Amino acid sequence: MKLFIKISLKTVIKISEKFYLVLAGGVGAAKFIEGLVQVINPKLLKIIVNTGDDIELYGLKICPDLDIITYTLANIIDKEKGWGFQNESFHCLNVLKVYYNLGWFNLGDKDLATHIFRTDLMRSGYSKAEATAIICKKLGVISELIPMSNEDVQTIIHTPTKAMHFEEYYIKYKCEPKVLNIEFKGIEHAKPINKILEYIHNAYKIYISPSNPIVSIGTILSLPKIKESLEKVKDKVIAISPIIAGTTIKGPADKLMQSLGLEVSSFGVAEYYKDFVAHFVIDNIDYKLKSRIESLGISTYCYDTIMTNLEKKKALGNFVLNIPS
Ligand code: GDP
């Protein structure tokens, strides 16, 4: 006699895949992320992006940092410039300059298509986060990009002569005016996209890109509950210094840090991040700052962080992936 035992036990095992979270600005973050996706499955990457640089020009909603990260992951970025599409032309902008007195902000013809599409989506009722997800899907980006907030926040730079949008200060005035104050206009009405706090709580590791600590990372940190949430999971937070040998590779982070009375060095960045960062990567050039940074209670690692080519980006990605946290 054969005995058949029918096992009708359906066991549902929920395996929650570990994922990595990155806080990002634009150019510095994009280089870092380009290396990270060489060593981590891009599907496991979620990226919270600064939207304080967002600006409306010619009636179009432009999100510089979101676009830099999107184009980088879609492999269509102009690598030389660090923003915009490859093989870009500027015919439309040349005509826009005839109509408007706004030609200081560079917008290529292909890039304009993204802004037209985003503006169309948002005027039809999609939120910034939804529009971002649709654009990413259309461009084949498989990492999840999350704008820090659906509400408008504008980084305003106060100078002795006038207050201006960060992009105007950066591009039109080439960071020359003295900075009196930095304002995140609208921050009091903004909240982080819902899932961000959950992602901070559940991420396997959190990387703070080598981005501008004041107007890229600092804007994200200014949203309610972000800093407190990071503090609770401090042990898994790893930051990479954007300041090397007391200066920036690109952009005004040094000038902005100085205007806030911070020391312009990787120590100054570490001090600014000390409440929510347990691990900090500084460039080999700055090895003398290691013990000072460690005195803040932060494990500090020296590495070559100048990402001039894909190999160096990948090597940094691999290095941060292996930091025990
Ligand atoms: P932005 O919004 O386009 O200005 O870009 P981010 O805020 O992401 O990045 C600006 C910061 O990136 C600057 O402070 C630069 O010093 C830093 N940065 C750019 N390239 C590199 C690099 O190769 N290595 C490091 N460590 N920092 C970099």
Protein model, in words:
The structure is a single chain. By secondary structure, this protein is of the alpha/beta class. The protein has one domain (17-75, 143-321): CofD-like domains (Rossmann fold, 3-Layer(aba) Sandwich), CATH 3.40.50.10680. It is 36% helix and 17% strand. It has helices at 27-39, 64-73, 91-99, 109-123, 128-138, 166-172, 195-202, 217-221, 226-232, 253-259, 266-273, 290-294, 310-321, and strands spanning 20-24, 45-49, 55-57, 60-62, 144-147, 154-158, 163-165, 181-185, 205-208, 237-240, 243-244, 247-248, 279-283, 299-303. It has a 7-stranded parallel sheet, with helices on both faces. Strands 7-6-8 form a 3-stranded antiparallel sheet. A two-stranded antiparallel sheet has the order 3-4. β1 (20-24), α1 (27-39) and β2 form a beta-alpha-beta unit. The model is unreliable at 1-15 (pLDDT under 50). The site of guanosine-5'-diphosphate has 24 residues, from α1.
